[in-house]
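Read as chain and fold; for instance:
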Amino acid sequence: MAEEKKIKSKIKKLSGAAGQNVLIILVFVLVIVFAAVESYNVLNVKLRTQVAEKTTVYDLLETRALFIRDEKTVQDSSGVTLALVEEGEKINSGGEIEMVFSSSENASRYSSYLELEKEHEYYTEMQNMAVGSATDMEKLESDILDEVNGFIRSAAHSDFDSAGESALEINNNLTRRSLLIGENIDFSSALSEVESKIKAVDINTCKPVGYVTAESAGVYSKYTDGCEGVFDYKSVADMDINTFDKYINTAVSAKGGTDGGGKIISSFVWYLCCVVNTSDVIDLEDGYNVQVRIKSTNQVLKCTVVKGADVSLGEDQTLLVLSCNETDGNLASMRLEDIEIRVKEYTGIKVNSAAVHDLNGEKGVYALVSNIAKWRRADILYTGDDYVLLSYDDPDIKNGIKLFDEIIISGRDVYDGKVYA
């Protein structure tokens, strides 16, 4: 019995030692496999390329701007009104802005009547459309493409009203296209139905009792915020920082809306004003033309520096005033906006910084030409966080980058003349 216990004890010890040896061997094998994989990854970097395409980047001045316009509010009517002018639409002096009704019921009935008139005009136009020429078709297809692009842009910026308008216009133009190629579409039943609805409206009992008219010519906007006429439009070029700060406080506390009669913007030239550090305007001069992007809408405006770029020594800040003559419904309702001023523009080939090499003291990249790496010398035009912008098609640079070169952006042991199978 004692001998049996001794034998069992020896067997357990041998089993434990064998298990430990197996575990050690397994760990050793895993370490070797891991090292082999890492070595393979280091020694076999996959060749990756990108096509040389030109890209534009900017030195940006980011700030918040106050919009100052030559604007005046329209006297609000005490009655129920219906708009005759679209947001951002131009209007002549004395032009009709709104119709005034004695009751909301009459306004609603008259509005329905006007919609039916538009619908009747649309179906009549469609019914009378004859088979068109190739030129008509090309123009229509171009319009359809423009509307599709407009729909995509509006949807991307969450402008669903504009996206809906584009979708409706796309549908209308597709119908027109079908008519132009000779497809027979019968609009008679739709016309008959609309005509019956028009006859059912007693137009004489719901006509407008008056009109709101414009005192001066300009661009109409339904949006007002109480700052109209508060900021001295004629003295913008002479404004100082203290006055600007007061204007900003007024604009911050202003509450805007579309409940009133709206406003008329009389002058097509308006101003964007902002206070910036003098160090930010080193590359600007009064009279320079610059691009300004409105961050909230991604809209890019062409502006001119009116004042603030030519700074006296010792000044830490400057009041930068830009003028612009572009306007629309969105711009007409803006007062304080975050903007970026594109101070300086660079156009070149954008590549990852790791793709740039140094050969005999010159900067450049390698391009893959017929499976052979070729040296392409280039100047660095701009340096970003993890990329650079390189010169291209420069006649003064021998063997420079050409548009559509296949630039090697990663690969192991790349050199001029290396052949890739």
Helices lie at 2-43, 104-128, 134-156, 160-180, 188-200, 241-253, 329-332. Residues 37-44, 130-134 have pLDDT under 50 and may be disordered. The longest helix spans residues 2-43. The CA atoms of residues 56 and 283 lie 18 Å apart.
